[in-house]
Amino acid sequence: MAYARRIIVDPDPILHKVAKKVTTLELKMPLTQQLIDDMFETMYAAPGIGLAAPQVGIGKRIIVVHVGEDGGPYAVINPVLTDFDGEETAAEGCLSIPGKVGDVVRALRCTVAGLDRKGKKLTLTAEGLLARCFQHEVDHLDGVLITDKATNIRDAVPVEAAQAAAESP
Ligand code: NI
User: By C-alpha distance, which of 101, 105, 106 is closest to 152?
Assistant: First the structure.
């Protein structure tokens, strides 16, 4: 069974801390596997398109992402981003900053390397919303929120709120 956990909302110190790497031994533990299941459940229940472990109060380098048909579901452990290419500015929300959106510049494409939930090496190339979502979630692991880098942070207006809710990592 998977359970939706409480999402930590800013301000909370855990959202601003650098999360710790997960060891392969730790990854195999039932507790960690349950955490990953629960992170998916929490993200879908929100609803959102991505979630990082610190957002449920766990300071570990684990993210889950699912941006639609061709964009997941992915669980990436100890994700590292490389090969940034292009640039795009778009309005972005965050489940830990409810009701707000801001314009964030992100690379249009990037490569994500890390481990899957079974500890196997994983490399993905991502573009557009998927790439944006990976960048947003890896920022969470480094204690960085959209409020640290967004311009024009504003209340999400209803139409934007609906979209931000649908697209909130
Ligand atoms: Ni977020």
Answer: 101
- pTM of the predicted structure, to 2 decimals: 0.94
Proportion of the chain above pLDDT 70, given as a percent: 96
Ligand 1: centre distance to CA 13 (Å): 15
Tokens representing 82 are 């490389």
Catalytic residue among 88, 92, 127, 137: 137
CA–CA separation, 50 and 85 (whole Å): 21
Q: How far is the CA of 30 from the centre of ligand 1 (A)?
A: 25
Q: How far apart are CA 78 and CA 57, in angstroms?
A: 17
Q: Return the percent helix, strand and coil in the chain, to nearest 5.
A: 35, 30, 35
pLDDT, tens only, 98-121: 999 999 999 999 999 999 999 999
Residues 80, 135: contact at Cβ < 8 Å? no
Assess whether 41 carries a catalytic annotation: no
pLDDT of residue 166: 72
Local structure of residue 122 (DSSP, 8 states): E
* Predicted pLDDT at 158: 74
